Amino acid sequence: HVYEVLMFIPGTEAYDHDDAVLDAQTISDIVKKSGMVPEFCSRKKESIDKDGDVVRQPPPDPRFLVRRPPVVTIMGHVDHGKTTLLDQLRSSNIVDKEFGGITQHIGAFLVTLSSGESICFLDTPGHAAFSAMRGRGAHLTDIIVLVVAADDGVMQQTLEVLQHAQDASVPIIVAINKIDKDNADVEKTKQMLMQHQVQLEEFGGEVQAVPISALKGVGLLELQEAIVTQAELMQLKGDPKGLVEGRVVEAQVDSKRGRLVTAVIQRGTLKRGDMLVAGTAWAKVRAMFNDSGNMVQAAPPGTPVEILGWKEIPSAGDEILQVKKESEVKSVLAWRNNQKSKMKQEENWMIIEERRKEHEKQHHAELVARRAQGLYRKRREAKSKESQARPDHPQFSLVLKGDTDGSVDAILDVFDTYHSKKCQLDIIHYGVGNVTESDVEIAATFEGEIFAFNVDLAQKAAALAKEKGVPVRRHNVIYRLFEQLVDRLNHKLPKIEEEVVVGEAKVLQVFQITLPNKKKSSVAGCRCVHGSMSKKLGVKVVRDNETIYTGSIASMKYFKNEVESIKKEQECGIGIDDQDFVFQPQDLIVNFETKEVDQEIDWDHGF
Hints:
Blueprint lengths: L1 H5 L17 H10 L32 E2 L3 E6 L5 H8 L3 H7 L8 E5 L5 E5 L3 H10 L7 E7 L6 H13 L3 E6 L8 H10 L12 E4 L8 H15 L2 E2 L6 E10 L3 E10 L2 E2 L3 E4 L2 E9 L5 E2 L1 E2 L4 E7 L8 E5 L2 H47 L22 E8 L2 H11 L8 E9 L4 H9 L3 E5 L5 H10 L3 E4 L2 H15 L3 E19 L5 E12 L1 E2 L3 E6 L2 E13 L2 E2 L2 E2 L4 E6 L11 E10 L10
C-alpha cells in the first residue's frame, strides 16, 4: 500500500520496495494520501517502568512486632459534643496554648493514661475528610468513637458515621454524651442505636457504650479504658524496624516554620535525616514535633508527629513511604508525575469527546432546521484591495483556516455575533486546510493576521509570513483562539482620555478683586472637602449638579501666600483663568487629572 501511495507523490521515483522512508515530509504525505492525519511524537522515550515507583514492604515477621497505641477517630453529629470531648482529652491545656499565639493543635495527639497505656486520637474535620481518607485506602483509623447526645439520640450524621465504619470495617465504641442535662435519656438513646443494628454489649452484642459528660469531665476514664480494652482484643502491633510507612493526617504552610505535615507512623521508626515520599511530594526530615510542640528525636509506630522538611505539600490521606537515597526519590517522583499526567490526559480526552458529541448533535439539529426552512449560508465573496474602502475607525483584517468545514462554520457563526462599532472585524478569506503561501499573500495585502485552528503551517508559508511580517496565530482550543482575537482587537483600539477626580473644594464666600489692568474679577474663598487641590491640574466648577466651567487655576493662595497645593480641610482663595466668570457660594470646584486608559472591545463571544 505504501509503495502504491509513493507513485502519487512527486519526487519519490527512486524508492524501491525494500527501501525505508526516513524523510519526515514524505512520511507525512504518505499518511495524508492514505486519508489519515499524521501525528509526530518526541524521539525521547518517555515511558517510565513501574520499577520506578516505591511500594510498601512485605508483611513483617510476627516475632519482631511490638504493641503500638490504637489510632482513634472521634466522630458524631453536629453539636453532640465532639469538640468538647476532644478538648477534655487534651486535658484542656490546648486553649491556653492557642491564646498564647501559636496554635499547637496538629490534628493528632497522644494521650498517656495513668496505667502507662497510650492512645493516639485523630481530630479529623468531619465526615468528608474521613471519607476522602477511606477512598484513598487509608485504613489509618483502628477504632471510631461515636459521640451521641443523650438528649437528641441518633441523628442523620450519626447514621453516616455508622455507614463509614461499616464500609471501612472499623469497630465502634459509643460515647453517650450530655448525661448531665435534665432532658437526657440514656436508655432511649441505646434503644435508638439498637434499632439501627448497633449491637450493644449489655444486649448481647459487641459494641461498648459508655455514658459520659464531656463538659463536666464525667466518664472519660471509663471511655479511655474501653478504648484500651478494644485495642487489646484487636492485638494492635507494629514493626519498629525497617523502612518507615505512615499516613498524612493534614498538611499546612506555617508562616514561621514553613511546610508542616502531620502524620501517624504505621511502621518503622522515623528519625531526622530520613527521606520520605508522599504522593508527588518528598521530604528530608529536618525536625519532628509532638502535639505539645516539643521536638522529638524518634517516632515509633502509632505516634503522631509534625514533620518539617517537605519540598512540596502532600494531600491528606496520602501514604508516606521511606526511600534510602535521593536518586531513588527522583525516580519515584518521575514515575508518579508521569502516571498523574497520563490520568489527566485521559480525563481531558473524555471531556473533549463528550463536548464534541454534544456539539455535533446540536450542530446537526441546527443544520436540519436551516435546510428545512430553505436557508443556506451565503458564501462570502472574496474581496480585492481596490474594492475595500478603508474606514476612519480602526479595522482588524484576518484570514481564517480550519481543519474541517464544521470547525470553520462554527467559528464563522461566532463571528456573526460581532456587532461592535469600535473596531471593524473584516474576514478577508477563510477556508479548510493548512496555511499556504496564498493565505500569507492575502493577509499581507490587507495588513491582516492569520488565525489557524487545528492545522499545520508549511515551511515555505512560515518563511514567507516571517518575510512579510504576517503574524500566524495557531490554536487547537477554540476558546483560546477567541481570547487572542479579543486581545488583538483591543490592541487596535486607540487609548481614550479619562478624568480622575483628585480633590474637591466648596465655595464659602466670593471676593471681588481689582486686577492690574483695572478690571474686576471674582475669587472663591473655599475649603477643601475631599482629597487635595493642585494648581497644576485642571478644574471644573459644578453648580446645581451641572458643570458650568472647565479650565485651569490661575491663582491659589493660602492666607496671603501663593501655593501649589492645598490639603483636606484647609481654606484657600482660588482664581481661575476666565476673569469674567463669577463664583457663587456653594459652588463645587472639582480638581481633576486626565489619564489615558486602554479600551476594551464590547463583544460577548460566549466563551
